[in-house]
Records
---
Amino acid sequence: MKKWMTLGLTLLLVFAISACGTKTDNNNAGNNAGNNAGTTGDTGTAGGAGGGAQDIKVTATNFQFEPAEIRVKKGDKVKITLVNKEGAHGLEISDFNVNLQKDGSTEFTADKPGEHEFHCSVMCGAGHDNMVGKIIVE
Ligand SMILES: [Cu+2]
């Protein structure tokens, strides 16, 4: 009698182990599918962001830009607007052939990754050389 019970328990144990094994396999399959989906999703996000449009307003005062650091995604179409709040300043981003000599806006595509300097392009006074900033394309 006791022998049969032991056998039964052993069988139960075997079933339990194989059930667990199956479950683990399913989890792995699920994880793989999840990872793949995640990777695809990431690519999609990057592509979507890259083709995005950025509307950036830069305010100039004596003698600085606000913001002095601009971040965009590679491939973004960037519309940059210069607003002179104090003094008369320009905004030049040589790397993207942007040169606003007064209030106004222009557009460019941020197709070059990395940091690009921008600076004032109008001789505005003693602090002219301090009027620099950077645009970071990531
Ligand atoms: Cu200047």
Note: The helical segments are 2-50.
---
Amino acid sequence: MWDQIFSSRMSRMTASEIRELLKLLDQPDIISFAGGIPDPKLFPIAAFQDAFAETLGPDTQNEALQYSASEGYPPLRDWIAAQMAKLGIPCTRDNILITSGSQQALDYLGKLFLSPNDTALVSWPTYLGALGAFNAYEPHYDRLMPHANRTPADYAARAADKGGKVKFAYASVDFANPTGETIDRAGRESLLDLADELNIAVIEDAAYQSLRYDGDAIPPVLALEIARKGSIENCRTIYCGSFSKTLSPGLRVGWVCAAKPVISRLVLMKQAADLHSATINQIAITKVAKACFDDHVSNLRNAYKKRRDYMLNALSKHMPDGVTWTQPEGGMFIWLTLPDHMDGATMLAKSLETQRVAFVPGRAFHADGSCGNTIRLNFSLPDKATIEEGIKRLGALLRS
Ligand SMILES: Cc1ncc(COP(=O)(O)O)c(C=O)c1O
């Protein structure tokens, strides 16, 4: 009965086949590299305790528990605008919309740009949650390759063949989920050239941008575009930021930074969807950000850098020939490519059964379902001994 009355978009919103396997993660003897979450032991708990106590104190208690503006809490938008300026993105609070995590921004941007059969450009592989958000708007996907010489006309022709237009390029440019890779400056510049020629938006997902462990920071795509065009108001790049990987994912506070015409349309969506993000969380996160953002992020970088290095060392020690992996300069993930004949999902089932080690098979991150011989490993959660033991077991499995 239900299938006949659900909307057509639901046919694109399917549960992942690996979810069943990953349910096993709750079992205590499993070593998990499957998550993609911050280490809760590193949360700034004391700062949040103080911030929430203060937020519910006499100065802001009524405001904190009340409805508030769809655009977001003005002092938070001001703090974010100042942070953006430090990244080479001069802007004001009118260029900032607070969202319930950056995931909500991805959903709104899908809704804003995609009509059924339009094309979204994404990398192969890309963030699974972005595909999940965009799928509801029934797009096709084409492969974004900033360094390849596919012409704008080629992208446009393929989109027209599928009955729509290219509307945006989505890119997680720093330490991407799932590969950990970064698009270099030349790649960012050619992404902007492509977007200008196709007259499309660029969605810059900056979820991991603050978590750089080595190498020099590369200016955000939006900063490079402002350098070309003088002002954020002339730019087509839409920057999606988040506090999830720095302060706390549970509070669900992210933001969009973009030209005002984009922000005003997104505000309409927010009004229709959830009115505004939780006021109390926005006030508390403003206080924590003002109290300790830079120091806290610097502690996170030190801690996660060590875990990345433990995992890279363990991989060098234990992986058999024929397995290759990325060398991320930041973020939370390392991406493994197994020999062609191996399948990540099959390996996961075997690994859980015989080695009790979990990871995420790579196929689901590919919009075309290709590259089954890949897997994603997370290093932000496990400690040194767990990383060493888990990678040793995984190496033994791959060798066998
Ligand atoms: C690349 C990327 N973008 C966006 C998100 C969504 O994060 P949040 O909604 O918590 O800001 C994630 C979460 O893992 C992510 O990996």
Note: The longest helix spans residues 279-318.
